[in-house]
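Students often ask why we bother encoding 3D structure as a string. The short answer is that it lets us treat folding as translation between two languages. Here is a chain of 384 residues written in the first language.
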Amino acid sequence: MNDRPFAARFLPAGVVQRTSSRRISKAGVHRADFGGLHIRAGEFVSGEVESLINDDALVSAACAEIVELTQDRRAVLIFASSVAHGRRVVEVLQQNHGIECGFVTGETPAADRDELLARFRGDAPTSLLGEEPLRFLCNVSVLTTGFDAPRVDCVVMLRPTMSPGLLYQCVGRGFRLHPDKQDCLVLDFGGNIERHGPIDQIKPKEKQLRSGSEPPAKECEKCHALVACGYANCPECGHPFPPSQREAHDAEASEAGVLSGEVTDIEYNVQDIIYRIHRKRDADEDAPRCLRVDYMIGLDHWQSEFICIEHTGYAKAKANVWWSQRCLDPCPNNAEEALDIANAGLLASPERITVQSITGQKYDRITKQTLGEIPNAALEEAPF
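And here it is in the second language, the structure alphabet:
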């Protein structure tokens, strides 16, 4: 079995070594949201793709962007999602931008197809010498293989695909060397490079990415270049990427219960404490507020508790007990005052807390706290 990167098996000899064959990948600014598409037999459902992508406003915006970014390109090869979509792209390029764009499908007569391809390649026979070379050519699942046009210096993906092989076959039409070509621009409006990774790093996938996992490529928000996730700064414009937040397995096995209703108590050292005022979501403006206390008990691991400072009855009684264990002065009735006292350092801070988890219940709770000494400063000495 060949364990080299999937793309390496398709690269023609010399492409990797020669800097003149550099590929430039950019994500289209005007793209559809493909997150809701379903997959059948390993590919997006074609009818859903058609309904989503063949939108007049989307096609018009994408075509305008294509025209803007390909002003210095000699041969632009476009892959549309369907015949209707391809026809609409050709119409918009002609009507809105005055650009002639050839169109090839599986139903195109052989003679017409040969003429269009000859003009696009720039090697039209004598009978067609009166025709200008064709800069734009749109196709639907026809020119993925068996089509050789080395002068192609821009490939436009106006369709999504779940197949890394199909993606490489499409984009690979622009990877052939040509003496007049410095690089190949790839415009991806289908989210394909973000889905599969940079073209020269594509590997066959044995299973889909987990929901929420990091894609193999990322887009620069400044210049829209698509690059491998490992870059800290965009190699095209230098824009810094925000640090990635990846999930990793824990260094130790979880102590959480396995069966529903199982109780687990774990003691943690408290590394930091944050106090703030809390009001229930969607509560009225005059609803009572709490003092929220967040304890940092691990790297990006926090446990919260809510002290009902402005409540009455049992909730207020519990707040009074909590406060008396930490402060020499009585519990205030106002959340702002409680926050000021806490931030002034007049509350004893817990050194350790015990967190109880019950399997099947949504929230954990603090059942025990080991407190430090109560500060000796009186309330009137506080700096507020």
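Translate back mentally: The chain has two domains: 6-228, 263-381. Keep this in mind for the problem set.
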